[in-house]
Amino acid sequence: MYKRWLPSVTTVLLIFCALLVPNAGVSGAQEAGATGAAGVAEVGGTAGAAASNLVLEQTFTTVSNGWSKVERWKDNNPMFAAEDYPKDGRGDQDGQRLTFFGGVKKPHSSRFLLYYAPKYDTNPVKTPVLLVHGANDNADRAWANPNELGSYGCGAISCPSTGMMQDLVGKGYKVFAINFPHKQGDNYYSAEQIHDAITIIQNVTGESKVDVIGWSKGAFASRMYASSVKKAGGTSYSQDIRKLVLVGNPNKGFDYIFRHGWSHNLSIFPECGGVVNAPSPHTQMVCWGISRNHPELSIYNTASGNFFPGQKQMLGKWVDEYPLPALEQDWYTTYYGGQGFYTNSNGIDAAIQQGSLVEPILNAGIPASIQTYLLSGDKNDIPAIHNEHTGPSDGVVFIASAAAVQGIGNVAGNVTVQHNHLQLGWAAGSAKQIDQWLKQN
Fold this sequence. Notes:
Distance between the termini: 32 Å
Radius of gyration: 20 Å
Shape: globular
């Protein structure tokens, strides 16, 4: 979904959006920077052949935001291919993540980070917990320091400096978190790396199952793994999840950018002052009286490339349930396609046909052996963005999507709390509810 910061901050938090501008691939220098690290070791253990693909490249023990250590891993499964990154750098790795990725701003999709919280090996709760962040985000801001980007970056005027990680550690859980290489990457790759992270945690803790908490796009990818929705060469669900908590997940898809394309688009097109790492529903837009053509910033697979596979995978139409906002600029052509007064769009159907995975995931289903919990938010009050107002929502995802139970074999809990989409990952109401769920037998 979408995370946006105030214009004074260079990044805008957009939970489900992706902006992938063509990249020629990972250069030799980038590969050298990522693979030349010390501490290379293979992982053995409980996941059989899949574990043989995993290589530990480097371990970092000087880590900010309260973590104990961070490891960089590489999955040598040939299914992983280099993904495209925005050429202007808006999607590059930053902060301490850049250090952990070996100084590579555009890491190859085969690499990921595994964060270890304090007491990951001594806390008393038996089942370890894996935290999975959303799009255009990272394990630090999402789970350990919601204030990393300052005010408004957490969905509130004032943001706390500790998050879900510290809360769970304080309650006795062994906590880990994954950090994906591409801020808006293909969910097929994310699902495979969630399996990888679980495999590593099994080896570290000796436990056969892990509790997975996925937030937003991370929840979507977590559900993909649990449902065995995979590419050729990918790993089917391996009976290694005890509880799956889906936080703010678009279980039945979302159509936010096509409902509110004009307001959203102003933050994307550079000639309009846009810097957001997110896809546009438009290929063309008028900025300051001049038509600007940017198919590479759009969600579609164009002659310039396929920049937003992860975004397309989460699309679903809600127009039959919630009418479109007819007072918003170019509302009809944005959603259905065509030339509007100021924009040109191929429409949501074209994007869905290019790769939505909502229906395949619903049809595949989550096994009844997994206790699945749904956490939704009912506040559309995220500062500095155009909130989803055409139906009950958390500001980005309709509650009817986040709370949808279709395809879930064992719905162990389904709760809506008074938080917006960004607050769901750290606010007290969310933390309390998740703790209650994890403690249930």
